[in-house]
Amino acid sequence: KQWYQRRVRAPLAHRTTPHTMYQMFHKREDGHDDSIWSVSWARSEKDNSENIVTGGVDDLVKSWNWRDDFLDYKATLKGHQLGVVSVTINAAGTVAASSSLDSTIKLWDLDSSKQIKSIDAGPVDCWTVAFSPDGQYIGSGSHSGKINLFGIESGKLEQSLDTRGKFIMSIAYSPDGHYIACGGIDGIVCIFDLATGKLLHTLEGHAMPIRSLTFSPDSQLLTTCSDDTSIKIYAVQHANLIGH
C or N terminus of the chain, fewer CB within 10 Å? Predict the structure, then answer.
């Protein structure tokens, strides 16, 4: 333990990790015919199965099962006309969503491997998608700088949150369902109150595009990652930087 703590605190350039600490557990060759841009994993509440969904530049979504320490191919979900940018699975582990450069969001039943719904996300391609914790909405970033929230049942745009910024590359719901955050190509992070639709905080801590962000399990902290090579952690309530 002491050795590990010393290594964690050491400068990145001087850190070493024994080859026995991490090892490849499983490998699947040729999962897609082109680059794979997104993956999501969730356990189904129905049968306790481990569902994995991948999305690729080959326009395909594929579903897999993790069973007995092996990745089993389940189905290829066809319907997108251009590359799949993002995939996600709802909290129940039963429905997947995918967004594509063809400007559509598609919902898939993971039990039947059939398309449930296709949502037209507008004239410009949508990007990262995320399910709300209650599974009632699917959020998507857009080139116009807005977070669009679509109803799962209606398949229609229910709410639009305007960052007044640029292309949104990443979004995340807080686990408690109170907030949604997004990261832009301009390095700006925005946090909204979902109950009121109000923009709570605009954070300018990054100098380059924000590829990913996520809330802590208690929804009190937000971690952001950027092309500027930095990781930053903010306290959500007061938007103060507490770690980097």
Answer: N
